[in-house]
């Protein structure tokens, strides 16, 4: 019992690590690497993970069954590839985040791909530097705050890098793409299944006046550090459910956070086919977000049965952001986020109630 307590405590303070050791179905875990090249012409999401599904246990035609995977989303072409690996080819280091799926390797500071499957070939190495994740404390270990310690949540979430530099190249279907000088973002999810309905939006491509050419401010903080991540979802809670949200705006080393657990509120949420207008506030700040969605592509997401949920996502959206002080209405930050990842899934009318 003591061993399990300390294991849970250690994992709770390290959301980036693999949480699935010893888990039974249903369980999934996936890491989301967003990579954008310097010219902002190539946009990809690379998602390694594992699915311990309830389907496929008896016969191979009842679903994908338990498996590991690497999902690659080409945001420019609108193409998604889902490469399946047997569980025997999934290996995770216990005391750090280092993940091997077949010949592919994933870590906070690098990924290495070697894929030749059907219509996709992908080889190469990318290295990341300068990334900072959501702050970790014993009371609030990451983006979920104290909810991270609740043992019966349907889905857990982590933000591992708001924004970082990329170096390296990937060869995709015999075409070499140089990502050196580009920007990246890393998050992850794990648990039993994705929520019944949610909105997620993220961008770390904001321009800000007064940034020097060398990309570093006078105090040494990287200038290209503005990042927004925001999600709202229906959260099962005991025998009921509630609308929970988490929003973080990272700017020049400061995190402005708005969440259900901080006492922040949603003033407004309007979702149409192409737009999401969302306003959150607390006693100090007010954050207005206007997201513009473009053509979406269906990715695979987890249910309790299998990786059968269809998750429409775009990587070519934009998000207008305006952060103001409640006391006097002064504008603290205003900008347009490009290359935005945006999802709006499920019974969205319930989220807007």
Description:
The relative contact order is 0.15. The chain is mostly beta strands. About 1% of the residues have low confidence. A hairpin with a 2-residue loop joins β10 and β11. It has one domain. It contains 2 helices and 22 strands. Strands 1, 2, 3, 4, 5, 6, 7, 8, 9, 10, 11 and 12 form a 12-stranded antiparallel beta sheet that branches. Strands 13, 14, 15, 16, 17, 18, 19, 20, 21 and 22 form a 10-stranded antiparallel beta sheet that branches.
Largest sheet, described in full?
Answer: 12 strands, antiparallel
Instruction: Give the proportion of residues in helices.
Output: under 10%
Mean pLDDT: 90
**Could you tell me how far the N terminus lies from the C terminus, measured between alpha carbons in angstroms?**
43 Å
Give a concise summary.
The protein contains two helices and 22 strands.
What are the defining features of this structure?
353 residues; mainly beta; twelve-stranded antiparallel beta sheet; ten-stranded antiparallel beta sheet
Topology:
Blueprint: H1 2-12, E1 27-36, E2 43-52, E3 67-74, E4 79-85, E5 90-92, E6 98-101, E7 104-107, E8 110-117, E9 120-129, E10 155-172, E11 175-178, E12 183-191, E13 197-203, E14 227-237, E15 240-251, E16 254-259, E17 265-271, E18 275-281, E19 285-292, E20 297-301, E21 309-325, E22 331-346, H2 348-352
């Amino acid at each position: 019992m003591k061993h399990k307590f300390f294991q849970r405590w250690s994992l709770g303070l390290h959301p980036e690590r693999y949480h699935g050791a010893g888990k039974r179905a249903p369980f999934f875990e996936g890491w989301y690497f967003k990579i954008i090249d310097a010219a902002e012409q190539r946009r990809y999401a690379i998602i390694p993970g594992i699915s311990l599904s309830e389907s496929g246990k008896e016969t191979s035609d009842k679903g994908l069954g338990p498996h590991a995977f690497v999902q690659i989303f080409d945001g420019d072409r609108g193409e998604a590839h889902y490469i399946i690996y047997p569980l025997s080819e999934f290996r995770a280091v216990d005391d750090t985040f280092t993940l091997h799926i077949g010949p592919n390797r994933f870590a906070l500071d690098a990924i290495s791909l070697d894929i030749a499957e059907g219509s996709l070939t992908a080889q190469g190495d990318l290295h990341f530097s300068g990334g900072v994740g959501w702050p970790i404390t014993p009371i609030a270990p990451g983006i979920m705050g104290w909810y991270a310690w609740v043992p019966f949540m349907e889905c857990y979430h982590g933000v591992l890098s708001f924004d970082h530099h990329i170096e390296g190249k990937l060869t995709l279907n015999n075409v070499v793409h140089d990502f050196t000088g580009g920007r990246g973002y890393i998050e992850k999810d794990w648990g039993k299944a994705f929520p019944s309905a949610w909105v997620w939006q993220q961008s770390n491509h904001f321009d800000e006046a007064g940034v020097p050419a060398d990309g570093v401010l006078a105090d040494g903080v990287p200038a290209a550090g503005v990042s927004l991540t925001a999600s709202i979802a229906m959260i099962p809670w005991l025998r009921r459910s509630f609308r929970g949200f988490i929003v973080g705006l990272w700017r020049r080393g400061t995190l402005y956070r708005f969440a259900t657990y901080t006492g922040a509120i949603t003033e407004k949420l309007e979702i149409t086919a192409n737009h999401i207008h969302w306003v959150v506030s607390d006693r100090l700040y007010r954050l207005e977000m206007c997201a513009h969605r473009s053509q979406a592509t269906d990715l695979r997401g987890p249910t309790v049965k299998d990786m059968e949920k269809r998750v429409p996502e775009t990587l070519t959206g934009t998000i207008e952001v305006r952060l103001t002080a409640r006391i006097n209405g002064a504008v603290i930050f205003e900008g347009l986020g490009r290359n935005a990842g945006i999802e709006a899934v499920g019974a969205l009318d319930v989220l807007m109630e």
